[in-house]
Amino acid sequence: LSDRILEQAHLPCVTLDDYPVSLFINAGLSAEMENTNFTYGEGVGLYRTEVPFMLRERFPSEKEQMTLYREMLQSAPSKPITMRTLDVGGDKPLPYFPINEENPFLGWRGVRLTLDHPEIFLVQVRAMLRANIGIGNLQIMLPMVTSVSEVSESKRLIKQAFHEVSEEISGTGKILEMPKIGVMLEVPAVIYQIPQLAKKVDFFSVGSNDLTQYLLAVDRNNARVSGLYDSYHPAVLAALNSLVADANLHETPITVCGELAGEPGGIILLLAMGYNKFSMNSHNLLKIKWVIRSVTVAQARVLLKEVLSCDDPKQVREQVNQYLDSVG
Ligand code: PEP
Ligand code: MG
């Protein structure tokens, strides 16, 4: 990292026109292996729990999961750690749980799979709740939510896990806390269901990677169509714009945790839309902080207005790059 980026690492994360912004990190491995820099971020905005599952030869036991999660929660006990429940299927296969489908990206993934296998979900949530005893910084997030009923059903299971663990620890003097529960906004259907979802959850987090893939009907890992996969597509930007407006209207906190939040051009457009919480790979955090400290939301809004009327991603990119050059 360049000196000018490192120099401002400990300064407040605010835009030139004084809009405060919160930055979190995306994590995937154990806290130790990740060697994550917790000092600069305000916590973990996305812990991809499927990663440790993918590195094993069988499902980790409740005890193994508990140990892993506790280590993660303890690594920053005063900061929120958002753990996403198992998001396998699609591009994230489990070697010991083969799924054969013609269309895996439109198939059995994320919360769909864990609702069909509540025993997997319950073990994981119990491990999270246990790991959180005495720390209290856990938040739980559900991946690939398409319908409100999936949230109701998942919450019912989380309550069940809560009662089971409560019974087990009763008499020990330990106190079990109910964590905040949120959902990923990454299936286009949710663009039209924010009012209903807001009644059910404590927070939202936009998965711009999958939202782009599903909105544009472009496989995010298929080289043949990779030129068509672009989060700067005007339709994706319009969707992101609508999500934050609706979430704000329904007073539900919203974060962006997809890759777009870790890109300088992306962060400027998202700030202009009204987002002020972002989660990203830790290696992007200080660079993004530098960008935030170098721009005004007022200017970013002028840019956003222009790009929302563009015809294609290429035009958007040109305008955004021009703006970035002007900022330095
Ligand atoms: C996303 O879809 O944008 C996201 C953050 O989740 P993942 O990349 O793990 O699917
Ligand atoms: Mg996703």
Automatic annotation (TrEMBL):
<protein>
    <recommendedName>
        <fullName>phosphoenolpyruvate--protein phosphotransferase</fullName>
    </recommendedName>
</protein>
<comment type="similarity">
    <text>Belongs to the PEP-utilizing enzyme family.</text>
</comment>
